[in-house]
Amino acid sequence: MKLSIKSIPHIANKIAIELNKSGVVTMTKGLEAVTDEAVKVLTASVNQEMALEEKVHEICEANEEEIEFMLADERQLFFMIKKKLAPEFDVILNYEERYSDISHKILDELYEEDLIHFDVTENRIKNIIYNAITAFMADSSEIEDAVMDKIHSYKRKFIPGTDEFEILFEKLYREELTKRGME
Description:
2 strands; two-stranded antiparallel ribbon; about 5% strand; mainly alpha; single chain; about 70% helix
């Protein structure tokens, strides 16, 4: 599942919580400092992918007439171009590999900034971070479905995309995360 800007604070928070609960990590400056570093790494990764996708959109738009003339599948073409340009933008498209790479980068930053101390292997800490990311991503769609069900159960109808909808969605999303012990 693709990382989104909106999910970054929640994923970073889950990483900090899981590291704290692990019993093998000592946080030198608390949960918030760990969360902030994770946010930086996750944001950089998402921004790299957004830059890649922007470039692919530009290429597709520049060749729009030819794409239509050839009756090419635009989604498939988009992915093919994205796959070709991914190394240039330092984006890993395979999610497992990408989450592993992000986990390693987060661990490096936490260690370099002296935010954590541990007496186990780096791989064990990286796995805690990786598992936090993958668990959050797995739970994310389930949480979104639960939030949408709640929104649809209201007598008043909320229109997706409006500020009112977004505020309500974020509020209910946070409540659902708290209820599940993820925040």
